[in-house]
Give the backbone structure.
Amino acid sequence: MSAQGHAVPGTTPPAESAAVTRRVTAYSVLTALILVGAKAVAWSASGSVALLSSLADSTLDLVASLGTFLAVRYAVTPPDAEHRFGHGKAEAFASLVQACLVFASAALVGREAVARLADPRPVEHGGWALAVMGLSIALTLLLVAAQTRALKKTGSVAVSGDRAHYFADLASNLAAVAGIAGATFLSLPELDAFAGLAVSAWLVWGAIGVLREAADHLMDKGLPVEARARIVELALADPQMTGVHQLRTRVAGPYVMIQFHADLDPALTLEAAHAILVEAENRILAEYPAADILIHPDPRGRAEPHGGAFQETAAAHSPQATPES
């Protein structure tokens, strides 16, 4: 489990991960459709800018949820001739699009709130608007709970981005309730506009978090330190493998790529060395069933320094090395 409470990528079997993400993204689309319809009707009756801000956010969430719905299905399609590492990064692209849409939503809400501060207007049919917002909060809470359970199983970056949207929706809905209630019952229409500004700021903050997570995946950030240490521990469980170095990991949607160099007795036959590496792969696959593993054998004490674009550092030669070099 990662620091955010997400599953470490690669630890859930691909078929199970695909089933979970497909189901929760379908829930997301259905929830967004219901909320957009209900908020559109309530906004047309009330004219509330806070409700409009929430409607704009839900509309963009619907677009983002549809993108995520398609992305998680594309991400689990098998590798092909042009994509030999699979299509897992489609999830990160979907999350990146989500971040851009949230930024756009924040700009729209902020502009409308500033305009309404300059020209305050009363909120009509505030009771209906509050009822719709109550429905929105209840449905969003149910969806976020389902997405949280999915993240504990899959660690999907696309689901994480979608959940960030709906967390922002909760703040949007609560701010909208405060604004509508103030405008309706206290005759202070300015509160409606201030609620819109608060939602705009919250959306920007949420979008930054989504953007960072998507960028980590697209820039091939490795697994957490604890996960890398565990991979080394599993590899070295066989005393015939006396060292691991140049460990590299990267995440692609539901999959994780693992590669490293292993120190072996130079007197071993090719067949014996191969058997040791296969057993190491199987130990790692038992905990990372969605991993693609590549192990390069090195004759202990006789291997030449590995050159190329990713040359090893001195620290990477330690038998217990875990850094991504």
Notes: Strands lie at 243-252, 255-264, 291-299. The CA atoms of residues 74 and 253 lie 10 Å apart.
